[in-house]
Amino acid sequence: MKSLRFASAEALVSHPQVALQSLDSVAHNLYPLLFKASYLLERAEVIRALLQRWPLEEFRLGALLGPSTDHAGDLRDRACRACLEACLRGLADHVLQGRGQRRLQLADLTGVRDVQVQQCPCGRPLGRWGRTELLARTCCELQADPQAAQHSVKVLADIFVTDGNFQLVVQALGPAAPAPLRLRCLSFRADSLDPSQLLHVLCLAGPGELRRLQVVHNVRLHAGHVQQLLAQLHFPQLVSLTLPAKAFDTPPACAPATEGEDPLLTSIAWELSQMTQLRELSVAFSTLTGNVQKLLGPLRTPLRALDLANCSLNHADMAFLAGCTHAAHLEVLDLSGHSLIHLFPSSFFRLLGRAAQTLRVLTLEECGIEDRHLSTLILALSPCQQLQELRFLGNPLSASALRRLFLALCELPKLRWVEFPVPKDCYPEGAAYPQDELAMSKFDQQKYELIAEDLRGVLLRAGRDDIQVSTPVFGSFDPDIQETSNELGVFLLQAFKTALENFSRALKQME
Predict the structure, then answer these.
(1) Is the entire prediction scored with pTM above 0.85?
(2) Contact 210, 183 (CB under 8 A)
């Protein structure tokens, strides 16, 4: 639905020349309406002109693109390259224009979401890495322009830094003199950086204002790096923290921690406990055997999201999770890579029971769930009436077991998304689990399609056509990895080359 005001705004911006000639006579409170209409119709020239003349003290991109009384549509999933480039050009024009016309104090460029299928008509998205590079380049260009020095606008952004844009971002974040665009980060993602680069750029990014920090994939951190990062920078406003694989490994120069004694982990846990806003923690693919209580116990606030996938949890870890304060507040939980029902049936059952009133997203990939475990799984899931998303790829379940599970899932009223594994009936008899990528891709596609159609039929007959189901064999869509795949590929090749050189050097020393 859209109001008559919005329809009028669309009519105006659909004729860009007329719109550009009329902007100076348009009431200031209509600028947000004209901006959304221009974004909807991809009128880049109008967007640029609107930002250049922006008459209000704040420009908040996410709020302007979201649903409103004038237009119920949500445009935040449209990371349209043309529109976003026009925003930055208009912002640059704004700080370059005559002093008396500058009113803008804050430009919040956060709120755009990267999705697999872009809804913008042009179909040309600008991902988070590209948005970071464009913003950083704009900041650097304005720093060199003496015309822009008289006016300053604070810019809030979600930053994605890799080795490919590191120098540019550092220059944008740490200008030598007062800058026209004062860049501040609310969300920071780092990939393919070394620990010293990460520490340097985070210092410049303003850790005191940071809400989300994602350090992923090809940032090689060990426990010493993590402790140094948290102790030196401090993140008082941090809500969400993601650490890369092996982030709790003992530093190479240190002796392995004795049982029950791990000063680095104790220090990391203390630093985390000082983050009173922390609600989301992801430490997947880090070995935490027997240490989950030491890590999570000191936290002062209950977690809403917890990712412990492939962390080699033991009985003590699962017992702590089932009984801790966090369990009753969890909305998002990932325990992939653990034989939950086979090894910890009572703790797993108790954990889901305590989380049932809040749990919205549950991921149980490669948990060794077999047909014989189905009754326990169904019983554990049945209280989770708030569950919206369930992912359990990589589990060796037959078509008949999946059919039975889907019947049970129909009873979860808020469930909307299910990712289920390729039934083991579609693989050669005796196929091993967990599977590597090559084995995973070798299944009977025709047989899978028949079974998948039958499972969808189960949902339809139960009146649950609101539940979408899929089997993303090679994982869910990740826009950040897709956008930087070439750079990360080069990084991995270089890492492999370095490993071979080190191995060769070690062999020569042995000779």
Answers:
(1) yes
(2) no
End-to-end CA distance of the chain: 77
Collapsed DSSP state (helix, strand, coil) of residue 242: strand
Residue by residue, DSSP assigns 451-493 as HHHHHHHHHHHTT-TT-EEE--TT----HHHHHTHHHHHHHHH
Decide if 9 contacts 34 (C-beta within 8 A). yes
| C-beta neighbour count of 335 within 10 angstroms | 24
Rounded Cα distance between 339 and 313, Å, is 9
Q: How far apart are CA 10 and CA 187, in angstroms?
A: 33
Amino acid letter, residue 263? P
Burial class (CB in 10 A: 0-12, 13-18, 19+), 326: buried
Instruction: Give the Å distances, CA to CA, from 70 to 3, 25, 75.
Output: 5, 21, 13
- The answer to whether the CB of 80 falls within 8 A of the CB of 87 is no
Tell me the CB-side half-sphere exposure of residue 181, using CA atoms within 13 A. Answer: 33
In this prediction, residue 24 carries a pLDDT of: 87
Are 7 and 37 spatial neighbours (Cβ–Cβ below 8 Å)?
A: no
Strands 389-391 and 58-60, how do they pair? Answer: unpaired
Chain mean position to CA 450: 34
In 260-378, the DSSP E strands lie at 280-282, 305-307, 332-334, 361-363
Distance CA 216, CA 15 (A): 45
Residues 151, 116: Cα–Cα separation, whole Å: 38
Coil, strand or helix: which one is 418? Answer: strand
Please answer whether residues 143 and 85 qualify as being in contact, where contact means their C-beta atoms are separated by less than 8 angstroms. Answer: no
Q: Can you list the residues of the chain whose pLDDT is less than 70?
A: 98-102, 147-150, 176, 253, 255-260, 474-478, 482, 485-511
pLDDT at 475: 67
Q: Which DSSP category does 58 fall into?
A: E
Residue 362 has φ and ψ, to the nearest 5°, of: -130, 130
